[in-house]
Amino acid sequence: LRPRQGTRDHPPAQAALRDRLLGAVVSCFKRHGAAAIDTPVLELRETLMGKYGEDSKLIYELQDQGGELLALRYDLTVPFARYLAMNKVTNMKRYHVAKVYRRDNPATTRGRYREFYQCDFDIAGQFDPMIPDAECLKIVHEILSDLQLGDFVIKVNDRRILNGVFAVCGVPESKFLPACSTVDKLDKVPWEEVRSEMVGEKGLSPEAADRIGEYVQLHGGLDLIEQLLQDPKLSQNKLAKEGLGDMKLLFEYLTLFGITGKISFDLSLARGLDYYTGVIFEAVLLQQENEHVEELVGVGSVAGGGRYDGLVGMFDPKGRKVPCVGVSIGIERIFSILEQRLEASGEKLRTTETQVLVATPQKHLLAARLKLISELWDAGIKAEMLYRKDPKLLKQLQYCEDTGIPLAAIVGEQELEDGVVKLRDVATREEVRM
Amino acid sequence: LRPRQGTRDHPPAQAALRDRLLGAVVSCFKRHGAAAIDTPVLELRETLMGKYGEDSKLIYELQDQGGELLALRYDLTVPFARYLAMNKVTNMKRYHVAKVYRRDNPATTRGRYREFYQCDFDIAGQFDPMIPDAECLKIVHEILSDLQLGDFVIKVNDRRILNGVFAVCGVPESKFLPACSTVDKLDKVPWEEVRSEMVGEKGLSPEAADRIGEYVQLHGGLDLIEQLLQDPKLSQNKLAKEGLGDMKLLFEYLTLFGITGKISFDLSLARGLDYYTGVIFEAVLLQQENEHVEELVGVGSVAGGGRYDGLVGMFDPKGRKVPCVGVSIGIERIFSILEQRLEASGEKLRTTETQVLVATPQKHLLAARLKLISELWDAGIKAEMLYRKDPKLLKQLQYCEDTGIPLAAIVGEQELEDGVVKLRDVATREEVRM
Questions:
Q1: pLDDT tens by residue, B56-113
Q2: Are residues A389 and A310 both part of a single domain?
Q3: Distance (Å) from the C-alpha of residue A31 to the closest C-alpha of chain B?
Q4: Which residues in chain B are contacts of A35 at CB distance < 8 A?
Q5: Is B421 helix (H, G, I), strand (E, B) or coil?
Q6: What does A103-154 look like in DSSP terms, one character per residue?
Q7: What is the Cα–Cα distance from B308 to B322, expressed in whole angstroms?
Q8: Which of A345, A380, A415 lies at the terminal end of a domain, its last residue?
Q9: Which residues of A touch B118 (CB under 8 A)?
Q10: What CATH number does residue A401 fall under?
């Protein structure tokens, strides 16, 4: 009976907390007008291959038992793109909350599992620039604020700016993606290590790496955007100029949303996945000195996303593109934080919603209990009883206290004779006959 | 882009209908005081093997990519039993709504898929006989009544009665399970075919088969229970006597619940799975002459379950038993029925909950829209806007009509100057300035 590596059961207390958390996230998605869709956990192996870069090796494949070659979905974005192409949908705002699967090294204390929930919100369609992108960032801001996870920053960058940087630093186009996935490690390791991977593993020239280093260590706000728009080299690069222009527009919209205080234009942000084509972003919780809870979990990315304008076209026989931008909320990390916080607070979450326990104080009254509880259920009232013929009243009241049931509906011989029920408030012990 | 066999995407309209359906089922489970748990889709291969009889061949296995040998869960009952044993839980009332996986021949028009939802409610623990069992039947009755699926019958039997029948008909104990899975086919094929499978494939004597035939074609109510309790052969069999005694008690409780009108004690009900040990039941929708909807889908089992007192013990190193009884709601078939009914009615289900569209009647007012919508979101109001810089007012109002948004909040140049918003009721075209 060993547990399976990197997966976990959720007992009732955890399931209740997770329901509450998912409820908050979904309610934000609905507030922004998204519709739900559902796609299968099982996808064709070929649908997933070639979409995740180096991480494709983490895809779970099913045994060939005859029929199609299947795999478990790795994220919700690729299935969404497959769905859009398959159904020729060119315009959609959807959310999807479901489990995804990765044969990764589990680090369960930091909320990293092999089977875990993703909560995605995406906007597909040809629209005016940066309006949907700004809404995705607003959503991240709303959710992280609502959940009161402490201070956070949302890093923003654009793949076009990064590619422009690579180009003006003398990196050949064929090495943009490898260079990108190396830059992505800057949030975990110092620049020196990233530089040596660029030069060693990825085969960039030391001079190119040094030039990249000067750019990717920059971060700031509107001022930095203006500065880079004036940069003699970058301003000559078409991609970078487009990216910077859109970044400026994005900041304008985020100012109207009143959230630029938490936004950082950060050139080191690269995001690992191959499919991003424009704006990318990632939200990070900031370490709080005085709160041991965050320290236990370790800070890290709790939301991320970006624009992927080419992915749907990869699934369309004619290559028709549907521009998309989306965000994924890292629910498992947030769950780990909330769980430890709940534990520290000593608060006990109710795992059921039962309003009343139907109880009897004497023996031979099972029939009365069954009749009354049946009436309550039929009236839509959440009711329980002990599955005993003749339970002691004390035991029945104890069950209420243990599980947080606020009321007991008591039918004894006297009540039966009088045609009434005694309703008892478990906490105050007040009783009324009705 | 072929669809994967036996799976399906749920577009928004279907997802909304399914949410409504699952909501009704879960709300019944909560009304009966159940807590939620969650277990992984991935289980160890060895956990699932040897639990499903002939159907074990339908289990999806994962490729051996190093590490543990994994499989996709086949139902929610075996993982629940594994959960109880692993956590030494001896007492629990839980529900679980999640997807399960079977490499079956899909028959998607009849709601039979390879990936599908199960909605399970189970009561684990040592209690007085038939009280939890009666509650499971009450739950089926409540759900099928609430969903207004038309007339139905809940067939009830007991594995101990069936085994008693086999014993008194001269079947050796080693052939009880094969005989059981043959009897289970009686709802689909006539007795002659079942008899010939018993004699041919399962190796029962023709005399034994004939004697079984006399019993398993019986069905009725309390009168049949009394009759069998007087049966000269059956009444001598310990198992059958126990089963019949409990069946009588069950009918007593179901009478108090007022639901015996829909219950049929049916000796042909056997249920396919190996793990049942006591009461078993299955709910069937009855064909309705005048409603073409049901005919399209085909009638069939929409809920089933029973008592499995030995399953948890199979996972406990010391074989400690935890008696369990539970019910599974066949949500996919019900969904197919509701879907066809919705289609026939022409009713259009809203797929979003948006309350208000933020609109502008003139050009160059994007900033005003972004500011207002941001305020609405922050106030918890479900709001959308078109992702265009300068959309035509007509287009914006058309979007409301297409998606069912009841209100439009309009800010034009005049409103901006006056510091007001014009709120328009999309259906009545009434407008108020506020």
A1: 889 999 988 777 889 999 999 999 999 999 999 999 999 999 999 998 877 766 667 8
A2: no
A3: 4
A4: 12, 15-16, 351-352
A5: coil
A6: ----BGGGTB-SEEEEEEEEEES--STTHHHHHHHHHHHHHHHHTT---EEE
A7: 9
A8: A345
A9: none
A10: 3.40.50.800
Q: Does A367 touch chain B (CB under 8 A)?
A: yes
pTM of the full structure: 0.92
Residue in B with minimal Cα distance to A70: B4
Cβ contact B276:B307 at 8 Å: yes
Reported as a single tens digit per residue, the pLDDT across A380-419 is 999 999 999 999 999 999 999 999 999 999 999 999 999 9
Q: Who among A94, A253, A389 is closest to B12 (CB)?
A: A94
- Which of B215, B299, B300 has its CA nearest to residue B265? B215
Instruction: Say if residue B122 carries a ligand binding annotation.
Output: yes
B370 in the same domain as B326 = no
Query: Token pair of A246, please?
Result: 């859109």
A350 belongs to a structural domain: no
- CATH of residue A165's domain is 3.30.930.10
| B5, B9, B382 member nearest A68 (Cβ) | B5
Closest CA to A122 of A264, A334, A330, A323: A323
Closest by CA position to B304, among listed B399, B187, B162, B404: B187
- How confident is the prediction for chain B on average, in pLDDT? 92
Same domain, residue pair B332 and B362: no
Cβ atoms B179, B212 nearer than 8 A: yes
Tell whether B120 and B219 lie within a shared domain: yes
Query: B252 — phi, psi (to 5°)?
Result: -60, -45
Contacts of residue B62, defined as CB under 8 A and 6 or more positions apart, other chains included, come to A60, A61, A62, A63, A72, B42, B69, B70, B71, B72
Instruction: State how far the Cα of A368 lies from the Cα of B388, in Å rounded to an integer.
Output: 65
A83 touches chain B (CB under 8 A): yes
Q: Pull the structure tokens for residue B216.
A: 């398993």
B55 annotated ligand-binding residue: no
Domain boundaries, position B380? 356-433
Measured CA distances, B150 to A38, B84, B146, B315, B334 (Å): 28, 36, 10, 40, 11
| Structure token digits, residue A322 | 């549907």
Nearest to A37 among B10, B35, B377 (CB): B10
Asked if B256 and A371 come within 8 Å (Cβ–Cβ), the reply is yes
Residue B282, H or E segment = strand B279-285
Distance between CA atoms of residues B29 and B37, nearest Å: 12
Helix (H, G, I), strand (E, B) or coil at A158: strand
B378 part of contact set with chain A, CB < 8 Å: yes
